[in-house]
Design goal:
VC0802-like, binds magnesium ion, binds adenosine-5'-diphosphate, binds aspartic acid, Carbamate kinase, 2 domains, 18 strands
């Protein structure tokens, strides 16, 4: 039997009624002759609630128990989806991660897949099951503990299953009808893309566009999974949504394809750091060990053997970062005069594979921001993206200005 993977995100399974609507979509694919693996998220808001409960109970929590709690939202929707399908006379059953078993690393709250054996589920398909409903976002470590894959991880579960089972396609059903030039909730001028290249989607996702988890795009690229993003609220035809595909299959030829942003960033500066070989390793080693996701880094000009070192990280990690560098200082590994944290910054990025062969994109970007009097605090670039850190209050303005400046509302 040909096989499809269909993933439903939180808003698409937020109520029993929406689960019924999603189940009808699954039913239509079964009627079309497919076996289906359905990956479900927790009902919208549930994971946030569970994360909040963990934090309230234990501020520096045991990550294994964090995973035990926050993985539970998906278990509820998997069971409810299987029941709904059974009510429609479709042979279905639910699978929690450990039952498959979805084997992952032991990196709790950001685990990665190690192996997804397909024999248990395939045996059930052979026995007549039409739909396997799998709880997204979770797995099990070799120690036998429940793990989770990081926020938004159900997308990655879906792509990994599509690869492991050789699915014809992986359809990600969500609350927007595809991937846009920027978050349509921020910019009314955002335009839906019919296709986007893996490389561009990878950058957009890792720079904050949460429509797909970064890792899911990485896996789709590596295993050549046919990945589609589409609306769970609208009728979709063959060409609905956005196809994430290889660069050669793209017809648009714009230099910049999208604008991404990440709202909750912080800029941390260590002042009067001793400027000597090995100092960057002495600072960023302990930060890495503490699990801080350091993003942009700037080392300023040295003056009399001392320099300021600036980096950005997610705002919720600032306290932990502060603890890590203070401990390194207490151990005598580094010295600095003070730590200044600016917690009101956001990151805005422009992304496009066309940048590889076009000069001047950075200048154009900086000009557009300067015309709106938006001050740039830190800049980083790579082959196909340019990111800037700005005051959070200018975020919407900056996204609009860049969207206009690169004429993203027009197809190209
Ligand atoms: P789900 O619960 O289905 O996984 P998410 O909330 O994780 O849904 O992702 C969908 C959301 O991603 C949209 O509602 C939209 O606000 C946001 N988003 C951010 N950037 C983009 C983009 N470039 N294109 C489409 N959606 C985007
Ligand atoms: N429920 C998890 C989250 O909210 C995983 C997901 O929905 O993809 O992050
Ligand atoms: Mg998501």
């Amino acid at each position: 039997m040909p096989l499809l993977v269909m993933k439903f995100g939180g808003t698409s399974v937020a109520t029993l009624d929406r689960i019924r609507r999603a189940a009808k979509r699954v039913g239509r694919e079964v009627a079309n002759g497919y076996d289906v693996i359905v990956i479900v998220s927790a009902m919208s808001g549930e994971t946030n609630k569970l994360v909040g409960w963990v934090g309230e109970t234990s501020p520096f929590y045991d990550a294994r128990e964090y995973d035990a709690v926050v993985s539970s939202g998906e278990n509820v929707t998997a069971g409810l989806m299987a029941l709904t399908l059974q009510e429609m006379d479709i042979p279905a059953r639910s699978w929690q991660g450990w039952q498959v078993p979805i084997m992952t690393t032991s990196a709790h709250s950001s685990a990665r897949f190690v192996d997804i054996p397909n024999d248990n589920i395939n045996r059930k398909f052979d026995e007549g099951m039409k739909v396997a409903v799998v709880a997204g976002f979770q797995g099990v470590s070799k120690e036998g503990r429940i793990t989770t894959l990081g926020r938004g991880g159900s997308d990655t579960t879906a792509v990994a299953f599509a690869a492991a089972f050789g699915a014809e396609r992986c359809d990600i059903y969500t609350d927007v009808d595809g991937v846009y030039t920027t978050d349509p909730r921020i910019s009314p001028k955002a335009r839906k893309l019919d296709r986007i290249a893996f490389e561009e989607m990878l950058e957009l996702a890792s720079l904050g566009a949460k429509v797909l988890q970064t890792r899911s795009v990485e896996l789709a690229m590596r295993y050549k999974v046919r990945l589609r993003v589409l609306s769970s609220f609208e009728d979709n035809n063959e060409n609905a949504g956005t196809l994430v595909c290889a660069e050669e299959d793209i017809v648009e030829s714009k230099v910049v394809s999208g604008v991404a942003f990440s709202r909750d960033e912080a800029k941390v500066t260590l002042t009067q750091v001793e400027d000597r070989p090995g100092i960057a390793a002495a600072i960023f080693g302990p930060l890495a060990d503490a699990g801080i996701n350091v993003d942009m880094i700037v080392q300023n000009i040295s003056d009399e053997g001392h320099t300021d070192m600036t980096f950005s990280c997610p705002v919720e990690q600032v306290k932990r970062a502060e603890k890590a560098v203070n401990e390194a200082r207490d151990r005598g590994e580094i010295s600095f005069a003070g730590l200044v944290a600016d917690t009101d910054v956001a990151k805005v990025s422009v992304v496009g594979i066309g940048m590889r062969s076009h000069a001047g994109v950075a200048a154009q970007m900086f000009k557009a921001l300067s015309a709106e009097r938006v001050n740039i605090k830190v800049i980083t670039t790579s082959e196909i993206k340019i990111s800037v850190l700005i005051d959070r209050k200018y975020l919407e303005l900056a996204v609009q200005a860049l969207h206009d400046c690169f004429e993203l509302e027009k197809a190209g």
